[in-house]
């Protein structure tokens, strides 16, 4: 009878030890991945802006309007507010932004506001 009681305690203990060993040796990594299309779009936008050497600050996301707002820091003037659509290709929008900044520098004008999110993008000098 005593050996049966010892056996009842040893079997669950043995099973627990085997499970702990199996869990320690397995290489399954469970993690929470909070990535979404909007997060990936923002990450790619930041990478494109960094490659284009456009210094930005104060990023805000308006998800209900599918817009991303940020300020472009200018060297000798006040920052320019820029609105980009998250529905459009980020590369094309940054390319247009680069061209606008380049044209403004050539004409020695200061851009105050750029909206690339609408159907007809515009800039305010």
Largest sheet: 5 strands, mixed
Query: What Rg do the Cα atoms give?
Result: 28 Å
Which consecutive residue ranges, at least 5 long each, have pLDDT under 50?
A: none
Strand order of the largest sheet: 1-2-3-4-5
**Cα distance spanning the termini:** 94 Å
User: What is the ordering of alpha helices and beta strands?
Assistant: HHEEEHEE
Number of continuous helical runs: 3
Number of domains: 1
Strand content: 15-25%
The class by helix and strand makeup works out as alpha+beta
Overall spatial form:
rod-shaped
Helical coverage, percent range: 40-55%
Number of β-strand runs:
5
Mean pLDDT: 82
Descriptive labels:
125 residues, five-stranded mixed beta sheet, 3 helices, 5 strands, 45% helix, rod-shaped
Describe the structure.
The protein has 125 residues and is an alpha+beta fold. It has one domain. The protein starts with a helix and ends with a strand. It is rod-shaped and about 100 Å long. It is built from 3 helices and 5 strands; from the N terminus they run ααβββαββ.
């Amino acid at each position: 009878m005593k050996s049966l009681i010892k056996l009842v305690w040893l079997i669950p203990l043995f099973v627990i030890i085997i499970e702990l060993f199996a869990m320690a040796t397995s290489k399954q990594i469970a993690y929470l991945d909070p990535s979404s299309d909007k997060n990936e779009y923002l990450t790619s936008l930041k990478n494109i802006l960094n490659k284009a050497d456009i210094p930005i600050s104060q990023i805000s996301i308006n998800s209900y309007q599918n817009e991303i707002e940020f300020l472009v820091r200018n060297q000798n003037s006040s920052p320019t507010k820029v609105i980009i659509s998250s529905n459009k290709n980020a590369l094309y929008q940054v390319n247009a932004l680069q061209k606008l900044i380049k044209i403004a520098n050539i004409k020695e004008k200061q851009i105050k506001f750029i909206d690339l999110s609408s159907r007809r993008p515009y800039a305010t000098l």
